[in-house]
Amino acid sequence: MKNDFQTSLQPQQSSSASESKAAKHFQLIEKTYQNNLDSDYTEKIADLGKNFDYSSNSDRYWGNPELSTLYGTPLYDQASESQKLALNHLYWSGQYNHTANTEANTVLYNRITEGVFDSLNDYQTLCQELEFETAQEYHHIRTFQQIGYKTKIALLGKSSLGNPLKQSANLGRLKDPVWLKSLNYSVEAAKDATFRLVTRLMIGNRTCYSRYLQEQDGNSIPTIRGGLGGLTGSPTMIKFFTLNWGSSPFLASQYYAIRMIGNMSLKTYEHQYFKHFKKLEQAGEFVPAPTAVSYYHLRDESFHTTMSQVIAQELYRDFAPPNAYEKFVANLMVYSAQQGVLGGLSGGFPAVFREDASFFILFYRLLQSPLFEMSSEEALQWMEQCLCQEHEGFHINLKYHQRLLKECQRFFEPLDYLWPVNREVRIMAAGGSIDRALENNIKSWKHFSQQVLA
User: Where are the domains of the chain?
Assistant: First the structure.
């Protein structure tokens, strides 16, 4: 794999660019790219996923017990050892399913932003690094999916892959008629054309349109669902963000401030797996394959994190200061990411900072699975105890929250174009409240239970 990317690190550049090339961030980009090539763990990660067998890894914790679904809740306190192991494994699977979806976002947006940087002079090494990251992400995604799927099937059965509240939703449903499909396509095409026109008008002669997006002209604007991007806004809003990230050097750089949120969020729990790996390795004990995957992934991902930071904090200063429109869009992106990714406090998932209402169906399905075999009424009662009453799990997650909050504040503070609500990460700060989390959970649980019992 390395041979495909071992191209020269010295970009073709003008004499004026040679001066700027001495800038610290250019040196850091070159160093990061070379180090990423030299210490690539992608093949190890891919082999671990390909050869993963759940039964061979089922009798060990994959991380500290604290990294378990429903850890610190009354249900966890009463769970058997086998159930606690399962909850530990399901937490890994759930977190890395989200990570896989987020890295699918990265694949798309690396290409889009690379298409902007590639149209400029002096950014060849940066483009090579983004291209290499994209190749790595494909293997990471595949491994996370392989381990997660086998784990969920082993513990929960195939029924876990469906929504028990929607099993009859599609019965007897007719396919949309051709005329309706045509109308929907026309509406989307008109919306995309409007986005393209508005973006070009508002950015004006500062436009540096991504070569990747140029290839998509005439087609719908590429977008994503799921992962960090899917939590940042509606599909329509994400299309709008996608187009803007691919339309100017400043906004292409600003995308990496959003990507950095994903990098920091991942590190919040992945670093705990990293330490668990080192502890087992030093003791000469068996290392479960998922623990090893987390360890090697963090080592690969450290270079991606460095790139996110240098692009978001330093590279954007290479370009003309953003105009009012670019500042607005950049702030809207960060504001939306705060709301969608960092705006709450889960009582059921450690190191997750969204409201538990997003996960009610997952908890309900889990409690009715072969792992707990609860009736509908029992599942609802336990959900209320675990999510609507204060317990140790909330306090543990609050510690993770405060740690990440400080990291986010340090990261965003130097970005001079941000509104105070974004630079100080105020939405996330407000979400770090157990009382608020309980109040929101109680309201959402009442609505959810009524739906289930209807």
Answer: 21-164+185-453
